[in-house]
Amino acid sequence: MPSYPERSFPATGPLALQDSDRITLRRLRETLGPLVLDSVCIPRGDEVLVGQPVVQGLYEPVPPQPDGLLLLAGGAVDDGTLEAIRQAGQAGYCAVVLKARGADLAAAAAVAQEAGVALCTIPDDMPWRHFDALATAATGAVEPSADSYASVGMGDLFALANVIAYQVGGAITIEDPHGHVLAHSSLPHQEIDDIRRKAILGRLTPHRPGNSDEYQRVIRADGPVWFDIPEPDHTDRLAIAVRAGSQLLGLLWALDGAPALGEGAAAAIVEAAKVTALHLLRARTHRDPDRWRRAEVLAALLDGGVGGHTAAAQLGLATDARTVVVAFAQATPEDTPGLAGARTVDLVNLYCEAWHPQALCVAAGGTVYALLPVRADAGVLERAVKFAENVCDTVRRSTGLTLHGGVSMTGDVLDHVPACRRTADRVLRALAADPDSPRVAALEEVRSRVTLLELLERGSPATDLAPGPVQRIIAHDARTASTYTESLLAYLDAFGEAVPAAARLSVHENTLRYRVRRIQKLFGLDLDDPDTRLATWLQLRLHDLSTRT
Q1: CATH number at residue 62
Q2: Mean of pLDDT over the chain
Q3: DSSP code of 243?
Q4: Which residue among 54, 86, 276, 309 has the highest number of C-beta atoms inside a 10 angstrom radius?
């Protein structure tokens, strides 16, 4: 088995479409490229909209499919072919696709011109099932900008391949872990070799000596791998594995031929792999409609809209299943809105699959909730915290978002899930209220802060009481821009020890002592009384929390 030199680089971190979501015949031809789809005649122009592909045999009635793409599988171009083209025009198809097999297509083109339907061809050696799969995938494409990942619709792998090809500088294929071609680029100035051509036409990388070894090198590598290949008909390649966490989702292959890749190609393909992981996750999720149905049931269960008995059968769980709810929210939601978008949900779903077959997540507002079935043992919450930490790490690496994760207590039955959700929400609020908090916590780690937040929500001073010293101190600070509130809270947090409190405030300890005496005199505050100290600290602490949440 020949071995090619390797240059490694360090790692760096079917639904019906609306008209607005469909592509034109021009866009379809550009997406698949002339290697796959060529045109013979286009009587109505190439801006006609393309519907779903329909595979049809010769001499069979053409089924109705407005704007459909008729894939006319059969033998030689004969009277049956011409009749099928006429029927396609009458049925409102946008185009008929066939294989020329060396025949003169003048008669077929004339019939297509008269019928008002485009006539296109695919290579004779391309299986119809492969073209059908490519066309089905490509008909969901949207018009992208040539150089912008943001313009690519989630799951539109063909548009993504073209953007990656632009960024990296060479022709691209996106493959699954087994070498099946999921999508390929079609930029006209980037040449491909015979191996790539066969892979696109057969939708599978052809076997050759050394092929398996190359794939294993890419899969084992932590970053991109560059293959210098001496064979004259086989272009050099740059490749990288696409992963979400530790799970292999696929591979990216870039040709280093004409034009040659530049110095920034390795860095560009690393970034491309991160983006591709999100698209592959979304494409996989769309192929699992049952997951979407179960997510809707989970959303209703979390809100208390359905009971545990009703949800059990649809979620595949027993009514007495023990579960933990983990809630994820952005640490700084104002910086990057839309946590509940597809990217984070897909990554959380990936970890749910690894946790348990019935684990599931759903987005609600700005939070993503994961429901984790658990065993009845002492270490369950520690494992749930580790789960949340792994999710936060992967989301940060893949999307740049920083998340907080709140882990609830264990629910003994599914009817406890709404209470677990509320607990997870409170843990998130406690983490958000303290800039020094960890990224992830279970209830017991932040119970005191959660209790204070509960007091802030449920307990308030009687409305018929006159403002007390604390309210007057806060009002004084608001009027004069003084720092009495902050100073007094730091002093009480330190149990009346001036030295650590002064260090926290970055002032001299004598300055703080003077300030505290001044506060007591101005506002009639007796800090020698233990009840006064407790009530003062509690009010100041709740005020501080209210300004942070």
Answers
A1: 3.40.1390
A2: 82
A3: E
A4: 276
Mean pLDDT value across residues 192-197: 85
Edge-to-edge strands, sheet with 6-8 = 6-8, 225-227, 236-244, 247-256, 172-175, 181-184
In this model, does residue 28 exceed pLDDT 80? yes
Q: What is the largest CA-CA distance in the chain?
A: 106
Q: How many domains does the chain have?
A: 4
Write b or e for each residue in 103-123: b if 16 or more Cβ atoms lie within 10 A of its Cβ, otherwise e: eebeebeebbbebebbbbbbe
- How far apart, in Å, are the Cα atoms of 155 and each of 47, 134, 431? 23, 14, 33
Distance of alpha carbon 444 from its chain centroid, rounded? 31
Q: pTM score, two decimals?
A: 0.48
Residue where the block lists tokens 């940060």: 396
Residue entry with tokens 């490749």: 239
281: helix, strand or coil:
helix
Q: What are phi and psi of 101, to 5 degrees?
A: 50, 40
Last residue of a domain, one of 427, 457, 487: 457
Of 154, 160, 175, nearest to 347 by C-alpha is 154
Decide if 296 is inside a domain.
yes
Same domain for 279 and 293: no
Element (DSSP H or E) covering residue 441: strand 440-442
Helix 530-548 to helix 447-458 angle (10° resolution) is 90
Q: Is the pLDDT of residue 140 over 60?
A: no
- Beta strands 403-411 and 440-442, pairing class: parallel
4 within some domain: no
**What is the domain extent for residue 296?**
289-457
1 vs 389, which has greater pLDDT?
A: 389
Answer whether residue 143 shows pLDDT above 60. no
Q: Is residue 549 scored above 80 in pLDDT?
A: no
Q: Are residues 261 and 319 in the same domain?
A: no
Question: Are 124 and 189 part of one and the same domain?
Answer: no
**CB–CB of 181/206 below 8 Å?**
no
